[in-house]
Structures are given as structure tokens and as C-alpha cells.
Amino acid sequence: MLEINNLHVKLEDEDKVILRGVDLKIGAGEVHAIMGPNGSGKSTLSYVLSGRDGYEVTEGSATLEGQELLEMEPEERAAAGLFLAFQYPVEIPGVGNMTFLRTALNAQRKTRGEEELSAGDFLKLVRAKAKTLKIDAEMLKRPVNVGFSGGEKKRNEILQMAMLEPKMCILDETDSGLDVDAMKLVADGVNALRDAGRSFLVITHYQRLLDHIKPDVVHIMAAGRIIKSGGPELALEVENNGYADLLAEVAQ
Amino acid sequence: MNLPKAKQDALTARLAGLSFDARGWLGAARSEALARLGAMGLPGKRDEYWRYTDPTSLTTPEPPPAAAFDAGDETPVFDGIDRVKLVFTDGVFDADASDDLTLAGVEIERLAEAGGADIHWAQGLYGVLEARGQNPVQRPLAALASAFATDGVLIRVTGRAAKPVSLIYRHVSETSDAILHHCVKLEPGAELTLLENGPAAARFTKVLEVEVGTGARFHHIRAQGRDHARRAATHVFARIGAGALFKSFTLTANGRLTRNDAVLELVGDDAVAHVAGASMGDGDFHHDDTVFITHEGERCESRQVFKKVLKNGAVGVFQGKILVKPGAQKTDGYQISQSLLLDGDSQFLAKPELEIYADDVKCSHGSTSGAIDDTALYYLRSRGVPLRQAQSLLVLAFLAEAIGEIEDEAIAEDIRSRLEGWLHRHAH
Ligand SMILES: Nc1ncnc2c1ncn2[C@@H]1O[C@H](COP(=O)(O)OP(=O)(O)OP(=O)(O)O)[C@@H](O)[C@H]1O
Ligand SMILES: [Mg+2]
After folding, report:
1. Are the C-beta atoms of A9 and A58 separated by less than 8 Å?
2. Which of A8, A15, B209, B408 has its CA 20 to 30 A from that of B158?
């Protein structure tokens, strides 16, 4: 599904290197998790994959189902099936949540040569999905993320994901800021989408989310590189011992 | 008091081609307006409220030629709204294109027909609000319109108008120089929506005076047309009585030079005045909103919401003042003027002013100028919204607060679709 090879990234405006040779391969239907200390480059990786400005790829490649991702515009990546649930969802005053969702969904369908969804069908779909995520109608009417609590913003990200049905979902710390029940809701939302043709990359600091969303592979990122990969037990190790041992191991 | 020679010469030249109609009650009002104009002279570049906008092309004897614009790719604005239409082509009333002027609860007359009578209800209004509005800021082009308007409508509303009155201004001649003056009087408790649309002429000088009686409600929505070369100086003067509501929204797309003055007086207690504008210019575009709101009554509310979208060297001007007179306690005044600059060439000049002589008031004002938010743009695109569409969404979001001042949802939707059309046509 997603294949990243030797990805090096620096900031466009500064001589600051953030990613130093990331290799990652996620097969169709797999769930991978990335953990790693603050500032290790996890969000940067997700931004570079989704096409945010300000980063310069100096080396390496990333492909989604064989398509070169890094050459595409952000909207093309989305239409190709990539989705990033943001660590910090963006507030857009003046743009209604519903308008936003519908515009996005129909734009993607159009790009893929599918028919646009009618207003009625869209409404039905969004209501059903919002209900399972316990997002009330009032929230859907408000401008995108404006005045949403931290947890509401995260649930709104998952609602967008559920509506857009992407193939490759990257979740950047979707669990931070969620209460225990909301985390369960979000995990259920993600699990409901799990499918042989859909893959997940879950960035998190906490093992707890991974109790709900069982990963196939866990990666540890440090200083812009994946320093270790393993099974779910790796997350437990981090939870119990922190990163010191892992970092020391690599330094040797 | 004599004018400096240059000012006197300019005025004489401007008035040379205009004919003065001294008949009836209107003749008396015109004479007074002419005297006011004679004392002021025409606006000049050095006048305080013309520093950001060069009035020259609004004051020359002939207007600079302006080709009429065929907006045939779009259905005319307000088309789907049931209304009583009055059509003026290059400032001349077109009876054939207009509706029958009967509407329950509303008297509609044409100035050109009613002006010759000896007495008329409009005597207490015509030129009266304009004269009051000359102080402390002079508005000579308004006095010119009072003195020389060739036509206009006089509307007296005694009840709740069943449908809007719609003034449609068509522009055909390349050299037309239209001067119109309208008066609207809402008796206590009356209600009217007035629509105006179209460019009117190569050059358009206009006054609208509105008396909003106790508890009356007046809605004004105007779309100034898509002509690129037109020039216009328009003025709204309103007196708003106790518990009354005045709401005015203007959409301006294109136009080489547009100056819209609004002079609103909240004279009764608990009155409300909202004035809003959304304007979009690409290239040779200069748009000036000049607003003066006076709070006299207690517990009155005023809102000014002006948003401008500018690109390719377009210029936006906002001069907005709130004057709170002694005794106007519990005044709630709000003013926001913002521009969205779509490139580095465009310019926004804002002059917000507050003058407050009461101690228990709440007044806020703000002015900003900025570009499209890159982070929001990326967020939208990351969800699959193509660049241009994402930009349009954000521009519409920027304008939303101004459009939100239109109460009628069907009209607001119509205005929104004009904005979308413009954005679509002017995408990079
Ligand atoms: N636009 C930027 N300008 C300056 N520094 C940046 C920028 N983007 C990222 N960085 C820096 O790059 C490093 C990696 O940041 P990134 O946000 O990717 O870390 P992270 O692994 O997601 O951390 P966290 O766990 O705290 O979310 C940090 O040192 C950060 O300050
Ligand atoms: Mg991060």
C-alpha cells in the first residue's frame, strides 16, 4: 500500500534536517504504529506524505499503491486515497462543517470519475456516521472545528475519515486529548473501517490506544529515522521503560 | 463666502451642462441644495475624506466614457424574487420595462412626476437628511444630486409591504451621466425591503434618503453590477426612529471607481442600524466605503461590517466613524473592516474613527488586511478539495460575516452565488 524509501526531509526555509532516511513499508490491510520521542519527526513524516508546504525532500521516495506521492498536489494525494487525521485539526471560521465535508467528498468522487452524491444521500450518510461517533447535529452545523473541544476536533477528524473512506489512513496522535470513552469511540470508528484493502499508520505516544486498535507492526522513530520495528510487544516495552534503552541500543 | 477660484471654475463647468428645474415644491428643495453646493464646491483631492479616493472623474463636466457590460453569462441578480420593478436605463425611467407601481401599504411615485405639485409629503424629507448629513463632513456630490436629479422614486410605506420594491439600473450609453434621488419614508411600524441593482450609467450620482419611523423596519440590499469601467458616487442618508431597524447590504463587483457614502442617525431610543458591504475587485478597481453613524438615542445598536477582496492592484478604502453624542448611553457600536489581499499588488486603506461623548457605551472597532490562510488552504486540499475551490471557500468564508447581515435567506443565497460566479471567473 504505502512504501517509503530512504526519505530525507529538511525545512525549506532553514537548514534544518528533520527526516534522515525513513524506510517504511505497509501492506494492504495492515495496521502499523509509530511511537517515538517528541520532536523525532513523526508529524513531519505525515505532513510530507500529505503534501504540506514548507518541507523539502532531499532524497528518497514515497509511493501509494505504486503511485509517486511526492510529485502530487495535496488534493491529488487525497483523491488517490491518502488521509491524514491531524494532530492539531485546523479551525476554519466561516466554512460550515457540512459544506466542507460535502465539498471534499464530491471533489474526490469527481476526481475519481464517480458521480457526485446528492444532497439527500449525503445528509443520510453523514448523519449515520456522525451518530456512531456521537457527534451531534449541532456540531455539524458549526464552522469547521471552530469552538470544538480538543476531543471533538479529533472525533471530527475520524468522521471525515469515515466519510471519505480513504485507503491509507494516517492518524497523528488522534488519541491525545481524548477521554477514555471518546478513545473507545474513535477506536471503534477506526476498527469499523478496517478492511483488507485499507491500511493504517497510527502515530501515538500511548500503548492504550493500541489495546483498542491492534497493530500488526510497531515502529520506533527517533531523530528522523525508524530505529526499531517489531510486534505489539514493542509498544509495551516503551510504555514500561521509556525510550532510553532503545536509544542506547541503537547508539551502540 | 466665496469659493477659491479653481473650485468655483470647476463647479461652474460641471453645472454648465445640467438643467435646473425650479417647478413646484421640489424646485424649492433643489434651490436650497444648489445653495449648499455653491457654498461647498465640488470635492477635491485635498478634502479630508477624499484623501484615499481621487474624486476627479466624479466631478468632471463629462464622465469618462464607459462601455456597457454584457453580463449575459449570468441571470440578473434578484431574478427569482417576487418584487415590484422600476427600471431606469441610463437614469431614464423605462415604463415599458417596469411594473405597475401598485403595492398594498406602499405609495410609489416618480420624482419627475410628483415634483411639480405644490405640496407633497416628501417635502419634509427630500434634501433634508442630505442637508443634515453635510455636517460635520461635507458631501457635495449628494447636494448635487438633490439639486439636479432628473428622476427618482418617492416611496411612502404605511404597512407591511407584501413584496420588495426593486430598482433596476441599466447602463446602455457609453457616455451616460445619471443623477437620481430617491426618498423612502416608513411610517411607524411599517416594513419594506428595497432592492437595487445594476450599474445605472457610465457615471452615476445618487442619493437615497430614508426616514425609518418608530418601530419600522427597513431592509436594503443592493448589487452594483459587474461593469468594469463604470464610476459611481452613491449616498444613503437615514434617520432611524425609536425601536426601528435599518439594515443595508451592498455587493460591489468590479467598477473602476465606486464611492458609497452611508450617513446614519440613530435618533430614537433602542434603534438598530446595520450597514455592510462585500466588494471584489480585480485590477483597475477602486472602491471606497465611507460611513458616518451618529448615536443620539439611548441603547441603540450599530454595526458596520465591510469586507473587500482585492487582487491585481485593486484598491479598497474604508472610512468609518461612530459618533456617540452626549446622552446616548448604553450605545453598542461595532465596526469591522477587513480586506483579503489575493496578491502583493493590492492595497487596502482604512480609517476607523470613534468619537464618544457619553460614558456608558460599548464601542469596538477593528481593521485587518491579510492573505488567504495557508494552513486552512492545506487542510482543505488534504481532504481532496482542489486548490481553486478551496480558495473560493475561504474567500466566501471571509465574506460570510458581511453576507450574514442579509436577513432574507433567498436573497443572501442569490448574493452568495454572485460571489461564487465572480470568484470562478477571476480564479488566477
Ligand atoms: N515548520 C517547522 N519549523 C521549524 N521547526 C520545525 C517545523 N516543522 C518541524 N519542525 C521541527 O522538527 C522536529 C520534528 O517535529 P515533528 O512535529 O515532526 O515531531 P513529532 O515527532 O511529531 O513530535 P510530537 O511527538 O511532539 O508530536 C521538531 O524539532 C520540530 O520543532
Ligand atoms: Mg507530532
Report:
1. yes
2. B408
Residue B342 grid coordinates: 489575493
**Does residue A116 sit in helix, strand or coil?**
coil
- For residue B275, give the nearest of B355, B201, B219, B331 by alpha carbon: B219
A55-64 and A67-68 beta bridge pairing:
antiparallel
Q: Does B376 reach chain A within 8 Å, measured CB to CB?
A: yes
Q: Tell me the whole-structure pTM to 2 decimals.
A: 0.90
Is there a contact between B384 and A111 if contact means CB atoms under 8 Å apart? yes
**Domain range enclosing A165:** 2-251
Tell me the residues of A at the B interface, defined by beta carbons under 8 Å apart.
50-53, 73-75, 77-79, 83-84, 86, 89-95, 99-100, 103-105, 107-108, 111, 143, 160, 164
Pocket of ligand 1, candidates A44, A50, A209, A227: which has the most ligand atoms within 8 Å of its Cβ, to mutate? A44
Whether residue B398 and residue A94 make contact (CB cut-off 8 A), yes or no, is yes
For chain A, how many structural domains are there in total?
1
Contact indicator for B328, B295 with CB cutoff of 8 Å: yes
A193 vs A169: CA distance, rounded Å: 10
DSSP state of B265: E
- Exposure of A157 in the CB half-sphere (CA atoms within 13 A): 30
CB B380 within 8 A of CB B395: no
| Strand pairing report for B92-93 and B102-103 | unpaired
Interface predicted TM-score (ipTM): 0.94
Geometric angle at alpha carbon B253, from B250 and B254, rounded to 5° = 135
pLDDT per residue as tens digits for the range A166-210: 999 999 998 888 888 888 888 988 898 888 999 999 999 888 888
Looking at the predicted structure, is the pLDDT value of residue A94 above 80? yes
| Alpha-carbon gap, residue B342 to B426, rounded angstroms | 11
Question: Which candidate, A191, A173, A201, A213, places its Cα nearest to that of A82?
Answer: A201
How high is the mean pLDDT of chain B?
96
Residues contacting A109, CB < 8 A, separation 6+? A115, A116, A117
Residue B176: phi, psi to the nearest 5? -65, 145
Residues 6 or more apart whose Cβ sits within 8 Å of residue B117 = B24, B25
Neighbours of A227 (CB within 10 A): 18
CB B359 within 8 A of CB B392: no
**What stretch of H or E contains B415?**
helix B409-425
Q: Which residues line ligand 1 (CB under 6 A)?
A: A 11, 18, 36, 38-44, 54, 87
* Amino acid B428: pLDDT: 64
Return d(Cα A122, Cα A127) in angstroms, integer: 8
Q: What is the mean pLDDT of chain A?
A: 91
Identify the three-state secondary structure at position A228: strand
User: Are B286 and B258 a contacting pair, CB within 8 Å?
Assistant: yes
Radius of gyration of chain A (CA): 18
Say if residues B333 and B322 touch (Cβ distance below 8 Å): yes
The neighbouring-strand residues paired with B207 are B181, B235
Closest by CA to A174, choosing from A235, A86, A45, A42, is A86
- H or E segment at A157? helix A150-164
Record the cell numbers describing residue B106, joined without a space: 406602499
Residue A234 belongs to a domain with what CATH number? 3.40.50.300
